[in-house]
Amino acid sequence: MGNKEIVLKAMNELFHEKDSTAIERYWHESYQQHNPSMINGHEGLRNLLPVLDSNFNWQPGIIVEENDIVITHSLVHGWGPVPVVVVDIFRLEDGKIAEHWDVVQEETPASKSANGNAMTSFHNTPLRNKTSS
C-alpha cells in the first residue's frame, strides 16, 4: 500500500467510521502536529473525535504523493460552522503518519468569488464512496 492509500484509509477510518483504533494503525507513536490548536501525539487525535460534528465529512479532491509526503486539497464539512477548504500535508515514516500541517480557509461559493470560480474544481463525492486510484 502506498503512502497516498495509507492517508486515505487513515482519514476515512478515523474521521468517517469514527474508529479510534485507526490511530494506532496509521499514526506514528511520535506523531507531530503543526496545527496550532492541536497537541502532538495520539492523545490529540483521541481528544478530537468526541468534539467533531456528527456530520463531519472530509472530501479529498487533489492528492499528490512525493516520496514520504502526501498533500491533499479537500472540502470539509463539520469542522466548524461553515464548510472549509483544507490543504493537508502529511509526512509518513515507516508506513504511518508521522507529521501533519494544514492550511484552512472558509469556502466561498463561486457565485460570491471575484473570479466566479469554485474553490475546488474536483468532483466532491464523500470519501467513503470513493475508490482509491
Mind explaining what this structure looks like?
By secondary structure, this protein is an alpha+beta fold. The protein has one domain: Nuclear Transport Factor 2, Chain: A (Roll). Helices cover 20% and strands 35% of the residues. It contains three helices and five strands. It has a five-stranded mixed β-sheet. Strand 2 and strand 3 form a beta hairpin. The radius of gyration is 15 Å and the shape is globular. The N and C termini lie close together (11 Å). The C terminus is likely disordered.
Q: What's a concise summary of this model?
A:
By secondary structure, this protein is of the alpha+beta class.
Number of strands: 5
The stretches of 5 or more residues where confidence is low (pLDDT under 50) are 124-133
How many distinct domains?
1
Mean pLDDT rating: 90
Structural class: alpha+beta
Classify the beta-strand content into a percent band.
35-45%
Total helical elements: 3
What is the helix content? 10-25%
CATH architecture: Roll
